[in-house]
Write a structure and sequence with these properties.
The chain has 186 residues and is of the alpha/beta class. The chain is 46% helix and 18% strand. The protein has 8 helices and 7 strands, in the order E-H-E-H-E-H-E-H-E-H-E-H-H-E-H.
C-alpha cells in the first residue's frame, strides 16, 4: 500500500512529534508499505522518510522545483519527483496514494489533508483520509468539524469518514478496514 503522509517541514517543540514520526515510519516499512510524501529532508517530513528508509522501506518524495532549489529536497529517498508547481505535486502524490494521513504540521499540511478529504466527499476517490493525532495536536480542529456538522455545513457521514487515531498501528488497522461513505452528490 502507498501511504501519503502530510506533515510539517518543522519538527515542533515537543519531542513526541519526532518520536511518533519515527514509530510510524518504522511501522510503514515493517508492513511492506511505501511512503509517499512531500520530498523534504527537514522537519517531520525528513524524520518519517529517514525512518522508513532506515527500516528497509521505500520512499517516494514529490517536491516542487522552487523548494528543491532551496536545498530542501531529500536526495536519499528511493525516488524523488521534482514538479513544476505545488498543484502538480499534490496531483502526483494523490495519484500514487492508496491512503492519506495527516500528522502534525502547519497550514500546508491542513490544506493538503482538507483537499483530499473534500475530494473523498465529492467521490473523486474512495481512499481513506486519516489523522495521526499526536499529543492532542488536532483536538481543536476535531471540535470544529463537529461544529460544522452540527450547524449543517457538512454531513455527519462525511465528518465521520475521517479516521482519527493516536497510535500508528491502530491507524493502519482502521485504514485497512475503511469503507467510503456515500458520495456527497451521489
Amino acid at each position: 500500500m502507498n501511504i501519503a503522509v502530510f506533515c510539517g517541514s518543522s519538527s515542533g517543540f515537543d519531542r513526541k512529534y519526532i518520536d511518533v514520526a519515527k514509530e510510524f515510519g518504522k511501522l510503514i516499512a515493517s508492513k511492506g508499505h511505501r511512503l509517499i510524501y512531500g520530498g523534504g529532508r527537514v522537519g517531520l517530513m525528513g524524520t518519517i522518510a529517514n525512518s522508513v528508509l532506515e527500516n528497509g522501506g521505500e520512499v517516494i518524495g514529490v517536491i516542487p522545483i522552487s523548494l528543491s532549489e532551496k536545498e530542501l529536497a531529500h536526495n536519499g529517498v528511493t525516488k524523488l519527483h521534482i514538479t513544476k508547481s505545488m498543484h502538480e505535486r499534490k496531483a502526483l502524490m494523490a495519484s500514487y496514494a492508496d491512503a492519506f494521513v495527516a500528522m502534525p504540521g502547519g497550514a500546508g499540511t491542513l490544506e493538503e489533508i482538507f483537499e483530499v478529504w473534500t475530494w473523498g466527499q465529492l467521490g473523486y476517490h474512495e481512499k481513506p483520509v486519516a489523522f495521526l493525532e499526536v499529543n492532542g495536536f488536532y483536538s481543536n480542529l476535531f471540535s470544529f468539524t463537529e461544529h460544522m456538522a452540527k450547524e449543517g455545513f457538512i454531513k455527519q457521514a462525511h465528518k465521520d469518514m475521517l479516521i482519527i487515531e493516536k497510535e500508528p498501528l491502530a491507524l493502519l488497522e482502521r485504514i485497512y478496514a475503511y469503507t467510503p461513505p456515500v458520495k456527497k452528490w451521489g
